Sequence to fold (339 residues):
Amino acid sequence: MERKCCECNKIGTCVYAGVFEGTRVLSPEGAESVSVDVPNAYVIEPLPIDRDYVAAGGVFSIDIILFGKVSAELNNVVTAFIKAGFTGFTESRGRAELIKVCQIFEDDVRVLFDRSNPSVSGKPVFTYSLSVNSSFKGCRIILETPLRIVHKKKNISVENFTPGMFLNGIIRRVRILLANHAEDVRNSGSDLIRPYCPDSENYRCYSGLGHVHAETNVSGPQTLTGSGERSDTVPYYAERRKAELEKLPEWSRPFFEHDDAELSSKLDTIVINNRKLHWFDWARLSSRQQRKIKLGGIMGTFEIEGDLELLALFIRAGEIMHAGKAAVMGLGKYRTEWF
Fold:
């Protein structure tokens, strides 16, 4: 008899659950709780959109990006792909055999698994850096897979798309991925990132500077402190911010040193030009639900100009982490051209 992961008493130590079911948590009683808004720690980048057929005996490749502590489970991820190939893909259940796994660098390729050479058992190296050019006026965004932005449970159309929606979604995704999957950041105890983690009591994830108890009725506009305490203002003085930043690993500080209000003020300055966008319908087969799921989104190019100094790092990180909904399935992949 098959069971859901949430019904298994080994979910806390199960590698599969930690990697592929990471967006769900358990209540103290062991029942399934609500799904919190925490992205899984991986992205599967599919075949090129214009390629929808692989001939028998043909070779194809896909990219997978692992974040944080999940990277240490590479061997288990490889095993999962081997088993997925044996089970089969698409409605026809065409099988595939994993031939090779490589880690791709800017100027090198490193083999980590080779079917024809069992002695190859390399471990991935995680020393990546982001370079951000400060001498630019704007940025051209080239969407390589559909960008799916959802607002109030509705997909944002091409006509209603704004640069603020795009950039705000990237900021939130980058911060939540770091706060929940980068182990040394999550364990730092900083009030700057705690609001981006699931609340251990209420199993909710809130962005901004704090969170509200699930049973609290908030009437009227209010702001929150980092601990969830209600107040009329947020007492974030320079001294407190400096002290909190010092708790974070140095590499992660740039992503948290500016609060939401600062970043929002920059978003208001951004304008969009040379918009060449269209809607692209896409679908995937869900083995769990035994049906096709629509994953359409916005495709094309657009340019953004304005005060991008504080946003550039997030835009560059988003090239790796993707943007929008269903990023785990490869949606929201983009590249940039700065000018």
